[in-house]
Amino acid sequence: MVPGRMTPVIIGVGDVKNGSQNVEDAIEPMQLMLQAIVRALKDATSEHRIAEELKSSIDSVSVVATWTWPYADLPSLLSEKLGIQPRHKIYSEHGGNQPMKLVDEAARRIWRGECKVAVMTGGEALASRTAHRKQSIKQNNKESAQLYAEFAKIAEQNEFAWNYGQKTPTAQIISTALTAMVRDLRRGDGQNGLILANGGVLTYQYALCLSTRPRRDGSAYPDKDPLPSHVTDTPVPTVTIQAEGEAMIENTLSFFGQTYTVEFNRNGTPSKGFVVGRLTRSNHRFVANTGNAKTLEQLSSGNSEPVGRIGWVKRGDKGRNLFTFEPDANL
C-alpha cells in the first residue's frame, strides 16, 4: 500500500422504488435520490448521531444524468437539500455505463486524498453472433430466452427490480446491480464481485471489481483505467452513405459483424427492417431499411438465416437506402 493513501470502501447502499401508478403518489427524481441517500446513511450506521456526522462529512456528490426530469444543477440542488457543501459536484453524461464510472472516479478521489466521503446517486421517474456460431434463428432465439430467463430468476429476488408491465428503466438500473452486489458480498456469498455496465447501444462499457479483501499484492487503488477510453487500434470499415448495387448481409466478424433487426407493431406483425450490409464490389458498409414487404417477411420469418445472403441496395425516393433480396424495379 502506498503511504498516505486511503483505501476506498463502500460503507452504505440504498435503493428506492416508487411502485405506485397513481398521479398523487408521483415522486420526482431528486426526491427519490434524497431518499436513497438517507437509506444509504442508515445502512452505514444505525446511530442517528453518527449518520448525521457522516452526512456532514460528504465532500463529493456524483449524480447520474436523468432522462425524465430537467434540472439546472442537480448535484448542487441535492447538496442544498442535504445541508452539505461538497468540494466535488459531478453530473455525468447519459449512459448505462455512467454509474460504475462515477463510483470508480469517486474511489480514486478518496485514494488520492481529494475527498473523504463520497456519494453516488441516480434516479428516474420511469416506473450477431448467430451466423458466426452457425446457429439457426430458432436455436438462437431459444438460447437467448433461456439466458435471459436465468437473469430474470436472479432479478425477481430483488424487491427493487423492474417487472414486466412497468415502464422501462434507464441507466439508473445499473446502480441496483451495485447495491445488490454489495449486499451479496456482505453476506459472504463470495469474496469478489464483478459488475459490467453498458451504455449507448452496447457502445460503452464500464467494469467494476469489488472485493471483501485487500489486493493480494498490496498494490494501491488503480490511478487510471487499464484500457483507453476509446478503442483506436481496431480497423474501421469505410461506410457508404448512399449505397447502390449488389450487397450482402455479411456473416464475417473481421471488422464489425454485419447484421439486421426487425421492428414489430404492437399486434406482433413486422413493421420495418434495418440492415447493416456490405457492398460486394467495394467492400464498403452501409445501413438500409427493407425495400419491400417480401424482404421484410423473410427477415422476420425465422425460417432461414438472412445473414450471408446476397441482395441489392438502392437509394429510395426519400433518400434512404433500401435493401431487398431480389432486384426490385420499384426501388
CA-based gyration radius: 24 Å
Largest sheet: 5 strands, mixed, barrel
Number of strands: 11
Continuous helix count = 8
Pfam families: TLP1_add_C (PF18313)
Protein name: Thiolase-like protein type 1 additional C-terminal domain-containing protein
Domain Thiolase-like protein type 1 additional C-terminal: 226-315
GO molecular function: acyltransferase activity
Gist of the model:
The protein has helices at about 30-45, 50-55, 75-80, 100-110, 130, 135-155, 175-185, 295-300, and strands spanning about 60-65, 90, 115-120, 190-200, 205-210, 245-250, 260-265, 270-280, 285-290, 310-315, 320-325.
Record keyword descriptors for this entry.
331 residues; alpha/beta; five-stranded mixed β-barrel; three-stranded parallel beta sheet; 11 strands; elongated
Structural write-up:
With 331 residues, the protein is α/β, with parallel strands linked by helices. The chain has eight helices and eleven strands. The chain is elongated, with a radius of gyration of 24 Å. About 2% of the residues have low confidence. Pfam families: TLP1_add_C. One of its GO terms (molecular function) is acyltransferase activity. This is Thiolase-like protein type 1 additional C-terminal domain-containing protein.
